[in-house]
Amino acid sequence: MRNARLILGAGLLLGVLGAGAKPLLAQQDPPPPEPRLKNYHPDETTCKGDLIRSSYAKNLLPWAEQPAPVLESLRQVQAEMTRATLASCVRQKLMTPAQAAALQKELGLIEPPVAQTLPQPSGTGAAIRP
């Protein structure tokens, strides 16, 4: 009889704990929604050289007091975005390739050659600029 009460008590305890665990599991936050990607298509105003120049010069001013590594990362993002905008302007025929290239050069957006690791006779594989 005592064993029956023990088994019954254990069963009730497991039932209560099991029922209590289900609502806890159900309360978990759902996964975040997938981000919606939006392709930016510049217009005639956006593709004006003067606007691109002034925006490029002013866009990072709000973050001027950030540490150097943060500013460098922001500059890289800004450069990538500006290059993409110029390429889109050219694709949409809102700017000539020559105008975009001149603006890229003026803003210092021409990418330097990437260091390549080439095998050396000594086998060290030191980086050499092409």
Can you characterise this structure?
The radius of gyration is 30 Å and the shape is extended. The model is unreliable at 113-118 and 123-130 (pLDDT under 50). With 130 residues, the protein is mainly alpha-helical. It has a two-stranded antiparallel sheet. The protein is built from four helices and two strands. 53% of the residues lie in helices and 3% in strands. The chain has a domain at 49-111.
List the helices and strands and how they pair.
Blueprint (H helix, E strand, L loop, with lengths): L1 H25 L22 H10 L9 H24 L5 H10 L9 E2 L9 E2 L2
Antiparallel strand pairs: 1-2
- Gross morphology: extended
Please give the largest β-sheet: 2 strands, antiparallel
Q: Low-confidence spans: pLDDT under 50, at least 5 residues?
A: 113-118, 123-130
Give the CA-CA distance, first to last residue.
89 Å
SS content category: mainly alpha
- Helical amount among residues, as a percent range? 40-55%
Major β-sheet strand ordering: 1-2
Q: H/E element string? A: HHHHEE
Strand content: under 5%
By DSSP, the count of extended strands is: 2
Computed CA radius of gyration, to the nearest angstrom: 30 Å
Number of helices: 4
Mean pLDDT: 77
